[in-house]
UniProtKB/TrEMBL annotation:
Protein name: EF-hand domain-containing protein
PROSITE patterns listed in its UniProt record: EF_HAND_2
Organism: Cercocebus atys (Sooty mangabey)
Organism taxonomic ancestry: Eukaryota, Metazoa, Chordata, Craniata, Vertebrata
The UniProt record lists the keyword Kinase: no
Coiled-coil ranges from the UniProt annotation: none
Length: 163
């Protein structure tokens, strides 16, 4: 039991060190704050891939009650530690991405042309794949019923656009 607790403390200490190092890169004033616009970059540098909606929620969680445009390290550290411990916002596994591109590569050339990529990113049945985001691909089931037919079942709905 003590070994498990010691191991967890070591893991937490390692996470704290990584989080602090990532945070300090953007703490230009050395005052334990970063511009709120840098939080996404910091989180992604720690190996997490939240959607824009999830990132917005995280920022709301670590912002001051009266937003100042800056995030304090003291508020960011416990939230980010919990995220890393829970392994939230993991990147899409390489094999899933590869399968997705293989499905899109109906000619089996091993690559997509610029025009094909533009088409897939901007006009898939009236819904842009960019709008859906890669997280939707991660939570979807891709199955090729033939080389020319692809079935994509998106489980969550994309966030509503505002503005």
């Amino acid at each position: 039991m003590a070994d498990e607790k010691d191991r967890e403390e070591i893991i937490v200490a390692e996470f704290h060190k990584k989080i602090k190092e990532a945070f300090e890169v953007f703490d230009h004033e050395s005052n334990n704050t970063v511009d709120v616009r840098e939080i996404g970059t910091i989180i992604r540098s720690l190996g997490c891939c939240p959607t824009e909606g999830e990132l917005h929620d995280l920022i709301a969680e670590v912002e001051e009650e009266e937003p100042t445009g800056y995030i304090r390290f003291e508020k960011f550290l416990p939230v980010m530690t919990e995220i890393l411990l829970e392994r939230r916002y993991r990147p899409i596994p390489e094999d899933v991405l590869l399968r997705a591109f293989e499905v899109l590569d109906s000619a089996k050339r091993g690559f997509l042309t610029k025009d094909e990529l533009i088409k897939y990113m901007t006009e898939e049945d009236g819904v842009s794949l960019c709008h859906l985001g890669w997280s939707a691909v991660a939570r979807s089931q891709l199955t090729a019923t033939s080389t020319s037919q692809v079935q994509v079942i998106l489980l969550p709905q994309p966030p509503e656009r505002t503005g």
